[in-house]
Structures are given as structure tokens and as C-alpha cells.
Amino acid sequence: MPPGVESNIMMRSRLVAQRLAALFLLGCLLFNFPLLALFNRDGEVLGIPLLYAYIFGAWLALIALMALAAERGGRQ
Amino acid sequence: MLQGWVVVVVSFAYLGVLFAIAYWADRRADGGRSVIASPTVYALSLAVYCTTWTFYGSVGRAAATGIGFLPIYLGPTLMLALGWFVLRKMVRVAKANRITSIADFVASRYGKSQLLGGLVTVIAVVGVIPYIALQLKAVSNSFTILIHYPEIIMPAKAGTAPLLQDSAFYVAIILAVFTILFGTRHMDATERHEGMVAAIAFESVIKLLAFFVVGAFVTYGIYDGFADVFDRAQASTRLSALMTTRDSAAGYGSWAALTFLSMLSVLLLPRQFQIAVVENVDESHVRRAVWLFPLYLFLINIFVLPIAIGGLLRFPTGVDADTFVLTLPMAHHEQTIALLVFIGGLSAATGMVIVETIALSTMVCNDLVMPALLRARARALHARQDLSGLLLGIRRWAIGIIVLLGYIYFRAAGEAYALVSIGLISFAAVAQFAPAVIGGLYWKGGTREGALAGLLAGFAVWSYTLLLPSFAKSGWLPGEFMTGGLFGIEMLRPQQMFGLQGLDEITHCLLWSLLANIGAYLGISLVRMPNAAEASQATLFVDAKERDSVAAWRGGAAVAELLPLASRFLGPERAREAFERHARDRGLGRVDDLPADARLAQFAEGLLAGAIGSASARVMVASQVQEEPLGLDEVMNILDEASQVRAYSRELEEKSLELEQATAELRAANAQLRELDRMKDDFISTVSHELRTPLTSIRAFSEMLLDDPDIDLDERKRFLGIIVGEAGRLSRLINQILDMAKLESGRAEWTTESVDLPAVVGASVESLGQMFRDKGVEVGIDLLAGPVKVFADRDRLTQVMINLLSNAQKFVPDEGGCVSVVVRREGNSVLVAVNDNGPGIATEDRELVFEKFRQGGSVLTDKPHGTGLGLPISRQIIEYFGGRLWVESAPGRGATFQFMLPIHDESAPST
Q1: What is the CATH number of the domain that holds B823?
Q2: Which of B19, B178, B466, B666 is the most buried (most CB within 10 A)?
Q3: What CATH number is associated with residue B128?
């Protein structure tokens, strides 16, 4: 393997790591006070209580981003 | 349909299916077509995280606290985002070091310490027992409820039924036997269980499927979708409170604490470590697990709330919320769904118990029993030929005892807590591994004592603030210490330590135990430097990226010793196979060809580590290896940082030495410059003095002539003669100074050629003949007959001769002065000597006369006879032509100035 390709892979792997670390921080932010408190009140989204809609929505979005970061980043 | 025997038969059929899957997967693995070599199977097997706690307990927790069940699943989601760093690194380290369990991991990290491995094992066993009790409680309760169909009757309180009528007792026995049959069928050198992993992945599918079915049934069968369920909940004041969470610092604090706790647990629970790290077949599988496992957690939680709300609406009182998953379909007479739910719960429980007890039994065997046996009964063990049977026996007993302990805990404390609360006690226990494990992966400074102190402190605080209170709450321990504190000290109340109030018991325990743990780990580690063994392991763990293994053995052992050793633990066949593979890897045809080197010892240690753990393997191999002592250089190499520091300081030392040398040279140069400067000053002052002397007399006599017109003619003539003489001396002096300066600066012009030296000497004597005659000096001359050639400048040689001759003429006495000139050959040189019969030169003055402006005799009494530059100039000239000029003399007997020049051989090529 030529050195350029190898370092390219290294760089990309590092990029994946950084993206996932950023998503970890994002998750810590989304699922904690004070952002959580913003949604901790009465209200509904499509018939679902606001707090549940927020947590499950954010959770799914986070998983989708993690999938994108982990699978796409390393394969290109 | 749901009679007891039907449920029992279906349960056993399900367990049979698990067996079949495991068997099939093992077969495929032996055939080289592994089913678990798939990232999806890896991610699914990670879902062993979801036990009956998730399956039954989440709904119970949701019914009590609303979203309070979620942190347990958000934490792992966050941890998997970090999994790219932490999990992959753990996998890499574990593979490189053949780690078989979390106890092995910690023991190996801190210098292969058996004590540490044992301590981690004890903490893991004690900590996880409540968790196993939880599974027993869930399965036995669900079984009891199910067989009472169509009535919905809550089971009797745990511990009240006699032993033989307690369904939990039978569940415990069946699970123990099943796990023993399932997990310890044979000894595996790598401690990996392909069949088990495949079965666990299958169980993950079953429990998710069962939960989905019941969730969909409640949401869409009983009610009209999510919105309908939540609408009904909003209508009830009791239920609408569940739609938001406690809006207080303690509420959010507890939420964050549970998230953090589950983050740690998803890596550090013995079963999670087993599945995620030990059973991992390929590091790259982590890539898919990063998102697939969180997605699994997401899916299994979607229907938790609708089921909880449905349960609360259907059973306002009298039914435990932990059983809603089962009782809701039963209440609607959906027997198939109820049975499926039971199987789902069973799969959640069996998955947990199988992996957890296998992991724990491995730890008990490798890190607790074997080290003790090796120590206590080493001789008896050495006598046994095949120890693999012994190892399997120890593991089977360990599984049985662990499940039994779980049952005892269930009888003791099972009823005091909901499912989730029991599980959290275990979570808090394994969180104590975090500083030693995570710290050990990223910090090289941790020492064995530090890890021991941290684990002990954390475990002690956990026991006091969480385990003992759980006994007290169920009446097994007197409750006084709960309310009054230990020894009646209020500050030591287990769940309000030091008066800290307002936290739930888990957050409270987590805070104090991790504080003690991390504090002790860091504090004690920092007491001393890591020793060589710790430092070398620290390098292997922390720098896992850079290198994968280091040949730590410094001696070898022969195949004849290592093969029987391995055979005893692995069985002869497997050991033989492994050694043959190793021989092939090294390009050798036969096992017996393997050299007795460190690499073979390393291989054997790795092989044994798979079976009996790294610490025990080290001891076993060490008994066979003739190890050379660790040399100072190697210790330095191992202590990577230390050697870097050493190299750096050596460099510094060199630099400062260079600097010192340069300084010394500069100082010397400076001193030389000062000396030269001083000499220049001396020279100038001397020259000025020498110039002033003739100038003064010229001026004095000229003034006398000018001032006094009456001086008679003779007197005038005498004065003018002096003036002319002094003027001549002055101009000679100036010429000689210029000459000297030219010679010294190397700018003199030379016309070098082959010169006949006797001829030059003769001509010089002749040219001064009138002067000698005037003074009445007799001149003797003794020249060589033929020409003798030297390579020189004719005029300069004449200058030297005239200098020497006039010098001699100056010092001879006025009466009977005599000067003789001799030229003779001396080997390859020619010698010219000019002798006088003057006063001679004192020994101490002989070199002084060649210094500038120095003259023979007393400076004070004798009037100067020359410029004081003639001899120095002559010496310079002679030395320029490769000869030397010196004087021989004795006071009172005249002086002989002589010089020697190399004869120029004209046949030789001139250079």
C-alpha cells in the first residue's frame, strides 16, 4: 500500500473518531439539564407528550447520525 | 392451554432450540464458516444487556416514574458513540494480551497481579448476585402468574413459601444446570464460545420480537395507537403526572447519575465485557455495533410507556407494574401472546444468566481458585497429568454456587425492591471497576497498590451504602444502623453519609463510592513510580495502537517442557494442535524442531492464558523457563518514558559541555587577544622610546648649532658628525621596523633561488673590510673550498651576515679585537659561525638578545650600540628558509652567533 493511501485511511479513521466524539458530546447535551428542562412541560406533538416526543426524536436522530458517521466515514 | 405442563414443555423446547443453535454454530466454526463473524451478530449479542429488568422492569419503572426508565438505555447509546475509542481499544488490548475476563484485564494491566484479579472477581461476584436474583425473581413470578391463567394472581411474597414449593428454587436449579451443560461442555483454549454467542444473538431477536408483539397488541389491539393511549393517560390526573419528570436539581442529578452509571455498566458488567471484548472476533465489528446496538435499545423501549399506561388503566390496584407485560395479554385472554411474552422473558433471563455466570466462573476459576491451588498445592497439581478436567470442574461448581447465591439473595432481599432497583445495585458495584479499567487504558501512572486501594475503597463504600441497606430493608439485618448510623453515629447513616440528603440511594452511593475509589486510585498510585512490570504492562495497554506485543520473556524453555504443561490444561489433543500450528507459523516442519526460545515461551504463556488467565499462566510458564535477569539497559528500554528522559538529559549534558568548551576557547582567544594587545602597546612604547633617543640628540646638537654662532669649526664638524650619525641610525631604525613589520605580517618580498652560501659569506666579510680595518679588528675567515648551495634569498642572507658581523665588531675590545668567520658542512646542512672575543653573553640573556629592542650588556650603563632589531630580523630570515640561528657563549670568553641552513640538492626536484 503506498504511504499516501495509508495516511489517507488514517486521517479518515481519525475523522470518524472525531465525528463520533462530537456526537457523544451532542448526546450529553441533548439528554441532560438544561435542554431536557425546556421540554419538561405539558404539550403534545402529534398526540404524543412533548417530553417523550423530544427524547425519542432526539435519540433516533442521534442514532441515525452515529450510523452515518460510523458506516460512511470508513467506507468511502 | 396455559397449564403448568404446557409452559414447562414449551420452556424446555425453547432451551432445546438454544442448544441446537449453539451446537450448529460450534460445528460451523469448526468447519471454518463461523456464524458469529458478522458485525450484525456481534451487535445483537451485545443486547444481552437487556435482561428481564428491561423486559419486565422497564414497564414497572415507567409506571412509577414516567421517563425514569430511559437513562439506562441513553447511557449505553452515548457510550457506544465513545465505543469507537474505548471499546475498540479494549478489544485490541484484550486480543494482544489474551485477556479472558475483566478480572484478568485489571490483573494484567497492573503487572499481572493475582491479588488484584482475585479482588475484582470477589467484587464482581458479590456485585452481580443481586442481578442474578432479579432474573430468578422475574422468571419465577412470570411462571407463577402464567399458570394461574385465567385468574391474575400476584405470587406470594418471596421467601415465605417453603423451599420445595418455591418456583424460584426450581428456576435457579434449571438455569444452573442449563448453563453448566451449555457453557462448560469443553475447554476452549481461547476462552471463546462461538455457540454461546450465536445463541445469545438469537435470544436477543426473540426478546425484541416478543416485546414488540405485546407492545403492538397493547397499543393497536387494546387501544387505537400511541395518540389514543396518551390521550387516555392525560385524562387521568394520576397518569398525566407521568408525562413530565420531577423538575428539580435532584431529579436531573439522579437522571444524569443513572445515565453515567449505565454508560459504565455497558462495558464493565462481566457479561458485557465477555460479549463485547472477549468474544469479539473482529475489531471492525464495533463499527456496526456503534449504531445497531443503540437502535436495538431504542426499539425495545418504544412500547414501554404504552404498556405501562395500559397496565395502570387496566389494573388501578392489586397488580405489580413489573408484571404488566404479561398480565395485560392475560387479562385480554390472548394466551399465545402471553406464552410468547413468557418465552421472551425467559430468553432475556437465560441470556443474562448464561453469559454472566460463564464470565464469573471463568474469573473465579482463573483468578481466585487456580492461583490459590497453584500456591497451596503446587506439588499435587504438578503430579496430575490432565488438568482440563479439574478446570471444568471448578467452573461448573462456580456456576452452581453463583446461581445459588443469587437465589439466597432473592430469598433475603428480593421482595424489598422492584426489579430495576435490584439491577441498579449491581450497576453501582461494577462501576467500581471504572477507575482501574478506564484509567488503566489511558494513564500509565496507575500502580498495583493504587488499583487495589481504589477498588477496596469503592467496594467498601458500595457495600455500606447499598448492599447492607438492601438487607436491612428486607429485615435480614437489624435496621438501627440505617436510621441511627453505624455505632449510633448519625454522620454514618448509610444512605445519608455525612448528612448528605436529597439524593436517591443510587446517586448517593455512586457519588461517595466513586469519590473514594478515584481518590484512592490516584492518591496511592502517585505515591511511587510504576515498577518495571507495571510500566511494561502500562505501555502495552495505553499505547495499544503502536505495538501489539512485546517479547517479555528473557529466557526459553524446551518444547519437551512446555507441551506437557499446556496439555495438562488444554488436553493433549488441543495442545498438540496449537503447538503444531505455531511450528507451521514459524516455518518449521515438526513440533520438536521448535527452539527453546523466548518466543516459544511467549506463545505457551498466551495459550495457557486463554485457559487459566494471564496471571496463572505467567506463574506456570515461569516454573519452566530459565529466565535471565533483566538487565539495566532493558529495564530502561521498557521504561519508555524514563529512557526518553534519560536521552533528553544526556543531550542536554552534551550541549552544555559543548557550550563550556566553546566558552573556554573563547576565553583563551580573548586572553590571547589581550596579550597581543599588551604586546602591541609594549612594542609601540619601545619603538617610540628607541626613535626618541636619536631624535633627541639630533635636536639637541642642531639647537646648539643654531643658538650659538660662536662655536668653532672643529666643534661644529663634530656636532654635525653626530647629527648625521644619529640621523643615519634613525633611518636604519625606521627601515628595520618596517622590515620587521613586513616579516611578521608575512608580506615581505622574497626572491628565493639557489645561492652559494660561502660566496655570500665571503662577499659580506669583504664589504665590511674597511670597517674592521678602521677599528683595527683582525678578521679570520675559514670558508669551504667548493660552492655549497642553499635555497634562499641572496640579499636577505647578506643582510643576516652583515648584521652578525657588525654585531661582532661592536662588542670586540678596542685593542686586539678579533672576529673569525667559519663555514662548514654538517651532514645535510651548512653551518656558518661568527665568533668574537668580546665580553660574551650571560646564560640568562642568550635568548633575550633575539627579542626586539633587547641588547646585550646593561641597559643603564652601556650606551646602545644598535637598533635592537638586527638579531630578531636575522632569526626570522633564517627560520623562513628552514634553518635556525642561535648563540653560544660564556661570559668573558666571547660569543659565537651561528646559523645552519639545509643544503639545497639541485638534483632533487625543487618544491
Answers
A1: 3.30.565.10
A2: B466
A3: 1.20.1730.10
Same domain, B708 and B754: no
* Higher-scoring residue by pLDDT: B667, B687: B667
The mean pLDDT value for B867-882 works out to: 84
Same domain, B187 and B47: yes
- Domain assignment present for residue B460? The answer is no
pLDDT attached to residue B112: 80
Which amino acid appears at position B604 of this protein? Answer: A
The chain B residue lying nearest A34, using CA atoms, is B252
For range B525-552, the mean pLDDT? 70
Which residue has cell 437487556?
A: B50
Domain assignment present for B825: yes
- B728 and B760 both lie in a single domain: no
Answer yes or no: do B733 and B792 share one domain. Answer: no
Q: Nearest CA of chain B to the CA of A18: how many Å?
A: 10
Q: How many residues can be counted in chain A? A: 76
Report yes or no: B798 and B808 within 8 Å, Cβ to Cβ.
Answer: no
Pick the more confident residue, B674 or B247: B674
Residue that finishes a domain, picked among B724, B742, B760: B742
Is residue B27 domain-shared with residue B156, that is, in the same domain? yes
Tell me which of B685, B707, B742 is where a domain ends. B742
In a domain, B442, yes or no: no
Q: Is A51 on the interface with B (CB under 8 A)?
A: yes
**Mean pLDDT highest for which of B152-161, B373-382, B665-674?**
B665-674
**More reliable by pLDDT, B499 or B311:** B311
Note down the domain range covering B404.
4-423
Compute the C-alpha angle B832/B833/B839, nearest 5°.
Answer: 160
**CB-based contact B295 A63, cutoff 8 Å:** yes
Query: Strand ranges (DSSP E) for B545-640?
Result: 555-556, 626-627
Q: Do A33 and B81 touch (CB under 8 A)?
A: no
Chain B residues in contact with A64 (beta carbon < 8 A):
291
Query: Under an 8 A CB cutoff, do B290 and A44 touch?
Result: no
Same domain, B79 and B113: yes
Please write the tens of the pLDDT for every residue from B603-639.
887 777 777 767 677 777 777 776 555 555 555 455 4
For the ranges A11-15, B38-42, B641-645, the one whose mean pLDDT is highest = B38-42
Average pLDDT value for chain B:
82
What one-character-per-residue DSSP string does B429-485 give?
HHGGGHHHHHHHHH-TT--HHHHHHHHHHHHHHHIIIIIHHHHHHTTSS-THHHHH-
B16/B32 same-domain check: yes
Residues B138 and B173 in one domain: yes
Q: Which of B317, B353, B299, B376 lies closest to B114, judged by CA? A: B376
Q: Give the 3-state secondary structure of residue B543.
A: coil
pLDDT mean over B509-513: 90
Chain B partners within 8 Å of A43 (Cβ):
none
Any idea what the CATH number is for the domain that residue B691 is in?
1.10.287.130
Cross-chain CB nearest to B67 (options A16, A23, A52): A52
Q: How many structural domains comprise chain B?
A: 4
- Alpha helices for B225-334 (secondary structure H): 226-235, 237-240, 249-268, 270-273, 286-302, 304-314, 324-331
* Any B CB within 8 A of A36 CB: yes
B67–A31 CB contact, under 8 Å: no
A55/B contact by beta carbon, under 8 A? yes
pLDDT digit string, tens, across residues B280-297: 888 888 888 999 999 999
Nearest CA in chain A to B244: A40
CA-to-CA separations, A6 to A11, A16, A75, B195, B388, in angstroms, rounded: 9, 15, 14, 36, 44
What local confidence, expressed as pLDDT, does residue B278 receive?
87
Tell me how far apart the alpha carbons of residues B313 and B27 are, in angstroms, rounded to a whole number.
50
Residue B244 is nearest to which of A23, A41, A66, comparing CB atoms?
A: A41
- Nearest chain B CA: its distance from A5 CA (Å): 19
Q: Does residue B437 lie within any of the structural domains?
A: no
